[in-house]
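2024-03-11 09:14:02 INFO queue: dequeued item Zinc-dependent peptidase, len=260
2024-03-11 09:14:02 INFO validating residues
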Amino acid sequence: MGLFDWFKSKRQPQIDPALWAKTLAGLPFLASLAVDEQKRLKTLAEGFLAEKEFSTAGGLPLSDEICVAIAAQACLPILNLGLAAYRDWVGIIVYPDEFVVARRIEDENGVIHEFDDVLSGEAWEGGPLIVSWRDVQQAGDGYNVVIHEFAHKLDMLNGEADGMPALHSGLDEEEWQATFLAAYDDFCRRVDDGEETIIDPYGSDDPAEFFAVLSESFFEIPEVIAGEYPAVYELLKRYYRQDPLTRSTNAANAANTAAS
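2024-03-11 09:14:37 INFO prediction written
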């Protein structure tokens, strides 16, 4: 029985074990999860699929592969936060490739500017989340459009995306602002100076993008965040209640032991 059969029957979706194994194998940052974490992620992803509504655009056929790949990556950031972190919205729209959004903005002089914005993903406050399937498939080495857009959704839990998500107990707003803004200012300086950063320079666009970009890197290349911005790494570790650097180190050590 495919996912769509489960959706029609109104029962909790059950991800096919073979498809789940294939999904994990294609995403090293998920494959490095401990066995118990992978089990919890699968259960969370099934709950996610039961709550969210997937649709496609641009002629892309909707498939179990698409739904599971997005669900698995979307649920990684909330592995220890729970599905409630993605409350109050349901729609996920998947395009085959980058898509165009018409923009209309007014500058400080009152002049209206209209232009087309080519995007790989976008999250709307209170509305759907949109991603390019081609970009979803390019996940790895610090680039992850799913984690990026879902980080925006976490950021929007307490209002407009501004780089500070709704904080749970044990996290202080003043500490968050001081730590993140210091790192953001430093990162902007590095980008403005022409430095080729491992962290996506798009993070210098504004604090909201900095949080989303750092979230991508936190889960995919944690050693970079821990090395360049250790205070931010510790803050993200406390926020997400996960330690991807220790996780990847343990997975590498286990692989080396098995090979020897």
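2024-03-11 09:14:37 INFO annotate: The CA atoms of residues 78 and 198 lie 25 Å apart.
2024-03-11 09:14:38 INFO item closed
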